[in-house]
Each structure stands twice: as C-alpha cells, then as structure tokens.
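Think of the structure tokens as a kind of shorthand, similar to the way a musician reads notation: each symbol stands for something richer, in this case the local conformation of the backbone. In the example below we present two proteins back to back. Begin with the first one, reading the sequence and then the tokens, and try to describe in your own words what changes along the chain.
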Amino acid sequence: MGELIVVRHGRTAANAGGLLLGRLDVPLDELGRVQAARLAEAVLAQAAVSRVPIAAVVASPLERTRATAEAFGLPVEVDGRLVELDYGELDGTPLADVSPEVWRDWRADPDFCPPGGGESIAALQVRVEEACEHWAAVARVEGTVVLVTHVSPIKAAVGWAMGIGPGAAWTTHVDQASLSRITVGGGRRVLRTFNETAHLTGE
C-alpha cells in the first residue's frame, strides 16, 4: 500500500479577504507561512514514526502552493495538473458578489464554465484524476507522496478516491493548510482521513 497526502496551501491575503481565488498568483500571508511550517512539521514527524519515506513533494505551479511545499525542506516537483480551477473573469471577485444565478448554474452543471474562459469542474476532475493516478503509482513503489494543491483539486482527488467523480465539489469543505490521506494499492483507493487541521492548533 502507498499513501497520497493531499494538502491545501496556507492562507493568503485573498483568502482572508473572502475572494474567489483561482489562477491569480499571490503569496502566502504571515499566518499562511506559519500554517505551512506546522503542516510540514506534522507530516515529517509522522513519516519518521512510521518509517515510511516521503518519496516526493509535489506542488501546483502557483506561488502559494510552492511556498507551502518548500516548508517541507525537500525537493519540490511541480505538476500543472494540480493547479486551481480557472475562474475566468470571476477570479479575485468577492464571494458575496458572485450572482445567485451563477452559483445556481455552477452547482447544477459540472460542465458549467465561469464566464470569461473559465474551466469546468468536469474538466478539472479529468486532469486531477490523471495526476492522482500518476502519483499513486509512485507512492505504491517508493513511499508517501505529498500533493500540495488547492480547494477544487483536493475535492477532485476526494472524488477520485471515493469513485464519485466531481460529486464532492459542492458537498465538502477544505480548510487552509489541511491535509487528507488516501491509501492506494491492491486495486483499491481509500480515503483514510479528510480535512485534518489539528496540526494547526497543536491539539
């Protein structure tokens, strides 16, 4: 059996401000850097106890995920398939300013694309599942793989693990600097934990 640890990046000022944050390339804020350090410390400590090596730390191309990944102190690989959903012209918009009609259409149709050339949840699901299959193959042979990514790709990874495709997009919540664990092997995928955050508070 191998394990994928799927991680959301630490907080940014845009997250704190309640903005819809997709491909805008913004840094972690001060709290986000603290969160990244605590996250990395917790994952590395568990790896030491379990004696299962971390085979790879993989990040989306955006600065906030790369900075979170770099907190592990290990080489970071970049995988473009883990990048956040493209929100088109809605990127950077306050969540409260997205119209009820857009939210309705978005939730009803996985093929809905945000205006201005945005990406559908269905399209995101395809690329994230490709990434998960690739890195699961590495994990089964070499050890734990940490995937540092964003809200929508994490929900897609959960959908992949549970065999429900994009069904997790609107029925799950993912906190900043949280982690979820997926074991892979023997032809099975199992979501072992979801949205762990105890490492952020020391509890």
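Once you have a description of the first chain, move to the second and do the same.
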Amino acid sequence: METILSTVNLQKYFYEPEPFHVLQDISLTINKGEFVTLIGKSGSGKSTLLYLLSTLDTDYEGTITINQTKVTGLSQNELAKFRNQHIGFVFQFHFLLPEFTVLENVMLPALKLNKYPHQQVESIAMDKLRQMHMEDYATKLSSKLSGGQQQRVAIARALVNEPNIIMADEPTGNLDSTNARNVFDILHELAHEQGNSIVMVTHDPDFARLADRSIELVDGRIIKQ
C-alpha cells in the first residue's frame, strides 16, 4: 500500500505551567485511502497529535513526512502552501464565514491557492457541493443553514483543492446522532471510494469501530493501533 503520512519518534512537550511530556515516541503510518481514528480519553494527546500531523503545530521533536515530503523543518510560509495543496481540514465547529454564501465559503481555499481562474474555481466548488448534496444551498448565507448542513459545507470546502488527506477533529461532536452518522458516512465514502486518507479524532466508540483502523493513545503513548 502507498504510504501517505508517516512519523518517526515524535516527542511533544508543554512547558507551562510546568514541563510536561505530552506525546512520547509516536511512530505511525497512514496509507492511501485509509480511514484512521485517533481515540483516547481527554488528555491522552490525540488532538495534540492531530495538530502535529496537520503541520499546524511545529514545536516537536522527531520527523513527519507527508506525500514523500519531509515537512519537519519547513518554514511557516512553506507549510501554509503545503497544507493548502495537500491537506483538508474539518473541525468540530465548521468555521464558515457567516457573511459569505455557501459557494463563497467553499471557494475560499481554492482562490487562496490561486491555481485556477475564478470561473473554474466556482465550477469545482459547485461539484464539491453536489457531492455533499448541498448544491441547492449555494447562494444561501452559511449562517442560515442547520448544523448538519454547515458541516457538510465545511467538508466541501476541505475538498475543494483535491487534497489526499483529510484531518478531522471531532467533526461529529456538535451534531445530533443522525447528522453525526451522515458526516461519518461521508468521510467513510471519501476514503473508500475516492482514495482520500482520513485521520479523525473521535470520542465515539461506535465510529472508532467502523473505521479501518483505530490508534489509541494513553498518556501520550500509542498503546494500540
């Protein structure tokens, strides 16, 4: 299988209010098209690990390689460009801009990438909204949508630059059970039908069981994967 992401001996420390070794000796691989959940109790280090894997936090020891690129040591500008091209993000809160329409929100990362003309970006964004069954809401303000609809728009936005990795931090945490299952099924489909690699932090044991693989952390260490 093709390895999309790998880490070697990640170490992470917090220094305030006192030194604390939050992640210890984390070595893992994520393959193309694999749906992996990060699980563990609060304080186990799973969200901290996700932020390292997504290159949002660069204060660590060890190495991270994504798409055959060693991202450890890259500058903040280089990392920002790399993230926009290769990684899509879905958070517990959707972070849509309320004064923008659904379509405008989905277009934003592609406009920032500046790879395609505006009209082509709009077409790609509409394709992603169709994939989420949200095309009929394209001209609505994002603030007028339900929570489940907003999260589907957030997934469309995460996909607009065709990333091969989706990092999801408790994406179902603010949703009722029906919408939570819908979001999970969408992510599952992205992995198994489109070949996206999904790394998802979750507290839900049912979702963890349905993933291809779960990586369990206890006190900053991987105890099972």
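Compare your description with these statements about the second chain. Residues 83 and 170 are 19 Å apart (CA to CA).
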